[in-house]
């Protein structure tokens, strides 16, 4: 079983709809992240959370919100989806150690907004 | 802010060829450096990492050395295989704050038999 699980894997929806992407992890990590990937742009940070009571904006948080329901669950919402939010979305987790702790990624959610 | 620049692709090689993917970074502190690989339809997997100057990360025949003097972390492999075809991302991890990963734009590698 995957350590970081994202659902759904693919989603097609219409402009204006509310969308929720879910992430759950079995790694026991406190830190969780949401990134989006666009062709030719690499990955950019949307939101991150260091524990259940800690939520922080990343570099491109406008139009998104998040909820940390439990240590293992971190969901990303698009309140009113727009076409330029079409992208591949990744959830990641990491441990609390300083510096060299890598981030572990889910397989991604491919979101298309028509 | 911190940034990562990696060579643009796509890169196409024949099997058993030597691979280099260049990566340079700009950072105010002393970041940790990573290479991630993304196979088609999958998420990013950690390939290797280095946490301080002159460290060499290695995995699956790939190597990269943390060069502080040239702010570089070039990825190399002596003999590539078809199964190495993927997109490779260089990234740095900021110390403190979000400790987010800052990614390069990725380099697509195709290895032909």
Key terms for this structure?
heterodimer, A: 7-stranded mixed sheet, 4-stranded antiparallel sheet, 57% strand, globular, B: 113 residues, mainly beta, 50% strand
Oligomer: heterodimer
The level of helicity of chain B is under 10%
N-to-C order of helices and strands of chain A: EEEEEEEEEEE
Number of helices of chain A: 0
Please give the radius of gyration of chain A in angstroms.
Answer: 13 Å
The general outline of chain B is globular
How many beta-strand segments of chain B?
Answer: 12
Quote the beta fraction of chain A: over 45%
* CA(first)-CA(last) distance of chain B: 41 Å
Mean pLDDT of chain B: 93
Q: What Rg of chain B, in angstroms, do the CA atoms define?
A: 14 Å
Order of helices and strands of chain B: EEEEEEEEEEEE
| Total count of strands of chain A | 11
Tell me what you see in this structure.
The complex is a heterodimer of chains A (114) and B (113). Chain A is mainly β. Chain A has no helices and 11 strands. Chain A has strands at residues 4-7, 10-13, 19-25, 31-38, 42-51, 54-57, 64-70, 73-78, 87-94, 104-105, 109-113. Chain A is globular and about 40 Å long. Chain B has 113 residues and is mainly β. Chain B is built from no helices and 12 strands. Chain B has strands spanning 3-6, 11-14, 19-21, 23-26, 32-38, 44-50, 56-59, 62-65, 75-77, 86-93, 101-103, 107-112. Classes of the chains: A mainly beta (114), B mainly beta (113).
